[in-house]
Amino acid sequence: DVAQAIIAAVDQPFLVADQEIRLGISLGIAVWPDDSDDFAELLKKADTALYQAKQEGRHTHRFYTDLMNAHSMERLHLESRLRQGLESGELEIHYQPQISLPDGLLCGMEALVRWRHPVDGLIPPARFLPVAEESSLIFAIGNFVLETVCRQLRAWHEAGYRRVPVSINLSALQINRGNLIETVADALERHGLPAGLLELELT
Predict the structure, then answer these.
(1) How far apart are CA 40 and CA 19, in angstroms?
(2) What's the pLDDT tens digit per position in 130-143?
(3) How far apart are CA 138 and CA 26, in angstroms?
(4) CA distances from 145 to 43, 113, 153, 198 (A)
């Protein structure tokens, strides 16, 4: 009841320079002494519950459970492995062809990043990309995809293949960072590619 009252109170609109503003709030709750009798541990567990509340759409509250901690530790472990995999070259690009139905010709491709772990095999992007977005790894992965695709486009051109555009997926975080245009322009220039060969898709 207290959590819902806090959410409702914060949800009330207020005016700033004649502009109506609304704030959203998420709450993570740990209970003394059931979850812990140590303040630092309680705060840590409340933060874990807060993360869960945000994961479930925000504007809600969640109480800490031991299962949350297990999921949190699994996420941290996956993030660590992904960071190592990025450094050791475990990421690869798969190219999905786009075919023109009237003539059956290749008219484009979509570049899809995949993680081939030496022990676990091919890890689906739905499992590791959300973790990458929650950390700074999404920027390193984005740069890897851009560089790899541009290098491959150049290699196909030098081998005499017909040029077709390749699309790459972008995270909203990459766009919001502000230097996307410069990063893409620099990659195209270094690899000698016309801009029309690269398509950017917002996931």
Answers:
(1) 39
(2) 889 888 899 999 99
(3) 24
(4) 38, 7, 12, 12
* Cα gap 159→156, rounded to integer Å: 5
Which DSSP state fits 197? G
User: HSE on the CB side for 30, CA within 13 Å?
Assistant: 23
Torsion of CA 60, 66, 71, 72, to 10 degrees: 80
Handedness of CA 132, 138, 141, 146 (dihedral sign): positive
Query: pLDDT for 183-203, tens place per residue?
Result: 999 999 999 999 999 999 987
CA 151 vs. chain centroid, Å, equals 23
Each residue of 49-101: pLDDT tens digit?
888 888 777 789 999 988 777 677 777 788 899 999 999 999 999 999 999 99
CA distance readout (Å), 5 to 42, 73, 160 = 22, 31, 66
